[in-house]
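Project standup — Tuesday

K.O.: blocked on the structure for the chain from last sprint. Re-posting the sequence here as requested.
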Amino acid sequence: MVRTENDFDIYYAVGNTNTSRQETEIGDIIRKRNSLGWKLVSTSTAVVDMKNHFSNLYLFWEKTYE
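H.V.: unblocked you, prediction finished:
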């Protein structure tokens, strides 16, 4: 029987500063999840601070077990 598990990561305060660091950290999250068998199925962002241009990044994952 096939079983599917869902999970998500929240990356806080994606803004206009430290872009290189943020890209590295997000890449590390994706590589780690992929190495554990997770598939990225969706992403979403939500603006949390309009004045300072900060957003949260949501990464939605799926893993199938057979």
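K.O.: great, moving the ticket to review. The two ends are 6 Å apart (CA to CA). Helices lie at 19-35.
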